[in-house]
Design goal:
Blueprint (H helix, E strand, L loop, with lengths): L12 H22 L4 E4 H8 L16 H12 L14 E4 L5 E9 L3 H23 L4 E4 L10 E4 L6 E6 L2 H4 L6 E10 L11 H12 L6 H11 L1 H27 L6 H16 L1
Length: about 280
């Protein structure tokens, strides 16, 4: 997929939830690869066990958790905004290692809300380091995560708002805006499938290769298929680059989707595959 450079739509509630949960999922994979016996809590997981004072069932406790349990218990009592009684703090994601001596914070938001997210990270780190640690005699090294979505993780498809529309989350503002550690930024892109044939063509052999490969890819994810196609069909990749140079992203996507000729209901997957093809072909 390709970043269009600026958001085409404001995120609705569902978009925002998907963008946050996808980033948290990727962060979890990264954190657990570094601390396989640790834990990563999402905002909802944390809220469900720690922020319903005074009727909360108590801190989340893990069997054999040891150091993690001590940290979770401390968070239940003291991770709050001390200027507002009962105002408990939470992060989009919070990773803690097995010993409870290291933790990472993540906030996910739009580029336009980046200053607020940066302020939240700073405020939460201050409370964790200066209040939670001190009051509970902890020695947890709280840090904003330095994890970022990789190039292959920069895009994630969303449910379309209308037939023939391709919507996706783009995390590239994180790099473009030089977001500080702990903050991942996203925007929403929209590409409309042309309703009439586009004035762009590709050589017949490249067209046949595209159509046949797409229709026989079975359950292979669109990104994986696109990467493999570009590697295995260098001449078709040249044609794709020419298509993008001639018509631009939107027309090129439309032309590729017309080549795929997807079945009803498969338009979103076809659009995602077309965007992925162009991304790998022009890189």
């Amino acid at each position: 997929m390709i970043c269009l450079g600026s958001p085409q739509a404001s995120p609705n509630h569902e978009d925002a939830n998907v963008a946050q949960l996808r980033a948290v999922e990727l962060f979890r994979q990264n954190f657990m690869s570094r601390y396989p016996t640790g834990i990563v809590l999402t905002e909802l997981e944390y809220m469900g066990r720690t922020t319903r004072a005074p009727i909360s069932p108590g801190p989340l406790q893990l069997r054999g958790g040891g150091g993690i349990n001590a940290v979770l218990e401390a968070l239940t009592r003291d991770f709050r905004n001390w200027n507002k009684d009962g105002d408990f703090r939470k992060c989009d994601a919070l990773g803690i290692d097995a010993t409870g001596t290291y933790g990472e914070l993540l906030e996910v938001t739009t580029e336009s809300n980046s200053l607020s997210a940066i302020g939240q990270i700073d405020a939460k780190l201050s409370i964790l380091r200066e209040t939670v640690n001190r009051v509970n005699l902890l020695h947890t090294d709280w840090q904003p995560t330095r994890w970022r979505p990789t190039e292959d993780q920069s895009f994630y498809p969303l449910r379309p708002g209308s037939a023939g529309e391709v919507r996706y989350v783009c995390y590239q503002p994180t790099i473009r805006s030089a977001a500080p550690p702990g903050v991942v930024l996203y925007e929403i892109h929209v590409v409309e499938r042309p309703r009439v044939p586009v004035p762009l063509t590709m050589p017949k052999d490249a067209t046949d290769q595209l159509r046949e490969s797409y229709r026989t890819r079975h359950a292979e994810p669109e990104e994986a298929w696109a990467r493999r196609f570009v590697i295995e069909h260098p001449s078709a990749s040249i044609a794709l680059r020419a298509l993008a140079a001639l018509g631009g992203l939107v027309l090129a996507v439309g032309a590729i989707v017309l080549i795929f000729d997807p079945l009803p209901g498969d338009e979103v997957a076809a659009g995602v595959a077309a965007l992925a093809l162009l991304r790998f072909a022009v890189r």
